[in-house]
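ok so I'm stuck.
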Amino acid sequence: MTETVSGSAARRGRGSRKGLKVERIFTTPGVHPYDTIRWERRDVVMTNWRDGSVNFEQRGVEFPDFWSVNAVNIVTSKYFRGALGTPQREHSLKQLVDRVVKVYVDTGLAEGYFASEEDAQIFDHELKHALVHQMFSFNSPVWFNVGTKSPQQVSACFILSVDDSMESILDWYKEEGIIFKGGSGAGVNLSRIRSSKELLSSGGTASGPVSFMRGADASAGTIKSGGATRRAAKMVVLDVDHPDIAEFIETKAREENKIRALRDAGFDMDLGGKDIVSVQYQNANNSVRVSDEFMRAVESDGEFALRARLNGEVVDTVKARDLFRQMAKAAWECADPGIQYDDTINDWHTNPESGRITASNPCSEYMSLDNSSCNLASINLLKFLRQDDTFDVESFVKLTELIITAMDISITFADFPTEKIAETTRDYRQLGIGYANLGALLMATGHAYDSEGGRSLAAAITSLMTGVAYRRSAELAGVVGPYVGYARNAEAHKRVMRKHAAANDEIRTLDEMDRAVHAAATKQWQQCLKTGEKNGYRNAQASLLAPTGTIGLMMDCDTTGIEPDLALMKFKKLVGGGSMQIVNHTVPRALKKLGYQQEQIEAVVEYIAEHGHVVDAPGLRPEHYEVFDCAMGERAISPMGHVRMMAAVQPFLSGAISKTVNMPEQATVEDIEKVYFEGWRLGLKALAIYRDNCKVGQPLSAAKKTEQAEEAPAPVEVARPVRKRLPKQRPATVTRFSVAGAEGYMTASSYPDDGLGEVFLKLGKQGSTLAGVMDAFSMAISISLQYGVPLETWVEKFTNMRFEPAGMTDDPDIRMATSVMDYIFRRLALDHLPYETRAELGILTAEERAMQANGEDPATLHAETEVDREILAQSAEITKPAEPRRPAVESEPHSSMEVIESRQGRTADAPLCLTCGTKMRPAGSCYVCEGCGSTSGCS
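replied:
not stuck anymore, here's the structure
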């Protein structure tokens, strides 16, 4: 049974303090917020589009009419409680919000947070209004657990601790397992464990932390699917001066080489593949905790000491740059380890008298004391952009106050997985307010993500959010008391508050919008310092930037966390079924802000719809291209552009930022070194990179962009092929085949006026590496056919190609095949090429070969008149014997990532959702599925 610690335990007395007065922001006295909304009934039926199976079905659910299909589907399937098909099952967003908000309001009243019952009712109405209007969201555990019979766990992020004893190590395994069982993630620093170069008291040699990581990894791999809500995640940290640091750095890179070898031997090594479980260390993110001393040694090309854990003696001395290069090389090979900057983290630590910050949660945004937890909430920034393109500072401030109050209340009633975590969290009351839709906000207001203006606005908003959060925390301290650990850390806490305020003073504003936000932030920090000096603070931490994966979709956000727009095109599901590809709605708003007229806007949007980017868009000035730069596509933001944005907002966050700096496949080890070094120099707390295609357990980017041909001299106009696209409805045949026992399916679509235009193949387990390669191969063949490459050219190239499986087929026209490719292109030739062409290639049907053997001319079979041919063509599908079918691989996109793939002509480096088969998209340092809301980690 899961160990929980009751929220009623260890509640503190309120004394004679007065409660908060709550002001109305969005609601009207006497009018319930639900009554101002038009509600509608919808049916939620979610399928795995790859095999047609129904994953989830609930009909007649009630939501506001402005909620998207995706948001409705995700909330209904993820957050509604009660058994399906029973009266206890929630069926309305009203029920879900009422369930959660009631606990917050009742607890707030009971614990003296509100001055009166009227204030509590206003709090109730304002919170409900903000939630149903998608202005913010609590993290997922709140929606899963609050108001149910389950333990009232509200935290998504946990940090554990491990000491140098077997009892502590076994406790770590147990505590992680309990957290994973609940679907959350945890991080831990293993640096207290003796290295494999040190002796035990018995005289033997210690195993070292890396060996114990193996056991924890196996445990996580077993438990991760047991969480009822989502896959769990974990973080393992090791200090750079640990004697086993080199082994730790290489851990996952070595395993990645093993994955490649097993894949090449035919094993299923894709994410979720049946053979991936044989590989170790795959269930954790690894990070090296580096010190300023080490980074300065890297800078000066000096030596660095590795020290024993028990007595601090020097065990070994290494060249700092060699160790730094080893980190970058391992990250180049497999994206691990990430890097955490220890001195920067602890310089911004509000509780140094209670212990150092040694680790983070799995996504690296929560950094606090060992054995602690943090509950998160994220604001939808785009909701505060007015129609006149000004930022609604007043409403943003009031909502932030509201959210911080609610988040602090939740610690009072919350349950925790262990007594140690319960005690630390209640004594320090760590909160994690953040935001989503920053990328969309910047684009909509005409700011390039990688620009001084974009960074200035982002910094001002982040400073305002954290300033308000700590000012409200100081006000709460005056009402219900400061956090228990505040007294011993008061001077350190106030010093960090002054550091935040000083960083705010350094913001350099560039236009009216960021000046207005910055002025408000300055005022909030002044009030914060004054009130905090008087009352202290209720919360040791207040803000961070989380991935906002599932809750970002719940709020219908275009971008997650601090991320820029993924691309200018996105996939949208339609009410009543169906879907379409649309240009992001922020694009027209940005064009209008930049001064373009409606006719120009329509022309640019139409161009983007066709090309997926803005380069050479009609009437768009080149100096405005940067506003539409995205994470992927024709004008992808550079890696340092992401680092600079993180550096702009980091001084205004209590915690850190969940974000992976994506790097192109051609990036070098030196490029990664530069990113890691600049992250330290610019004051980041943590940084992780991902180089495209560095992992085997991802769909492969097999269809590469063709190299640009050398440009012809200026006067010469080079002819370019024109793509002839297939209509949305086109004739197609599905062929089931078997080569040496290996089964497959081929869908061949033709133009209505004849001619093959599209081929899609399904071989092996969907989602496997082979399936990913075949998807990319099919796309390449289809595009080439539509650009006019003759089918016979492909037939010439691929027939007689030899590789396994090879042998007997179940096709009477092609009894033997030297490979699957040999069979496929012989079948396509038989189905789509005229006899004369096939005869030259030596590809004949069984009947044609029989006629040849009897001395007859097979050409007589094809001597029909043109009328006969037309009749035969029209009746072919009717007269052909029916074959047992499985759904063929679809050619239409099913997620925004697949829309991007269709525009780029290459497969994106993102995993397939294990629940519904949809291509996931990045969300911070995790991935999120637009189809069902599943995430690859904590959010």
